[in-house]
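Backbones bend. Our protein:
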Amino acid sequence: MNVPELRFPEFKQEWIRKKYGDVFSFRITNSYSRENLNYDDGFVKNIHYGDIHTKFNTLFDISKEVVPFINSEIKLKNISLDNYCKEGDLLIADASEDYEDVGKCIEILNINGEKVLSGLHTILARPDLYKMALGFNGYLMKSENIRLQIKTIAQGSKVLSISSKRLADLNLIVPQIPEQKKIAAFLTVVDYKLIQLKKKKTLLEQYKKGVMQKIFSQEIRFKNENGKEFPKWMKEKLGVVCDINTGNKNTQDRIEDGLYPFFVRSNTVEKINSFSYDGEAILTSGDGVGVGKNFHYVNGKFDFHQRVYCLCKFKKEYLGLYIYFVFSEQFYNRAIKLSAKNSVDSVRMDMISSMEIDFPSLPEQTKIANFLSAIDEKINHCSAQIEKTELWKKGLLQKMFV
């Protein structure tokens, strides 16, 4: 029978087979680029495919999203009212560089009476609301069956694309309206939990960024156990504070199930069966993507790429973890100044060695490092909860749909 593995017990009817084109019709979209949009003023808003990929929630509520306007000098009088977005519409990104994102979509739950158009590289699919429940279709498009079909119809080499004609031929298996509503309501609760967790993580990250700026500018100072001020901060060059080395391994040395962390030039940490250092260290890339921005703190056995710098063997009056937090807040901007460029393409060892850092006394370094580590623990806990909830949601989408 055409029924899902996981189902609400009050529903017994078999799900019904339909063609996508039987329950969705398609409307005309526009091709305005980012240059034709602004966030300040206008009369008509425009949903760009890039925002579907990166910003908007599956169930789209315009009162909770930031949507750009079409520039007011652009004439829109030839656009039919029927082509403006309505509640229930699916806006589908018709192009992507990878299979995971092609066909990504949002479903409009609330448009708040505003005028909105579906923009560049989008398909506007309008459901028959007598056959398809509001809030169900966005999740249907994420189900495993539909995703596999979309990947099958996607065409292109460098950029993958889909068309409304090909979408219309997709095979759907859907329940009756009452069951659609129940599924939509349940998955909406799951999505709300995800949204709240992501919001909490963002707020923690913003708080950490703000408080680090105040700590390292000495606007905020810690006090000792007796409530007295710590000594004045002193400047020191990193080359005096610690050893700075590069690795001797290449990426082909990595092993998928290796015993130790292997730090390469990207933000990803690989695995390897060797270790060249055991102890406290800071790792940062000498060049490549994310240079000057990606840092790792480690205390244990590890190995590292030949174009990765390792700061280690810190003198006893300097705390590696403190330097790591200084790096994460200041290093990129400092590297720009030292390299006399507008961007950082590479970081030389002498740039790091000659870089001066403000150091408080070791007890104050410890207080700062412990305080910021506690915030990091909360951020990491949020990340773990988000990952766990997303995996749960993925499982639900596999089991609650045919």
User: Anything to note?
Assistant: The first strand starts at residue 16 and ends at 19.
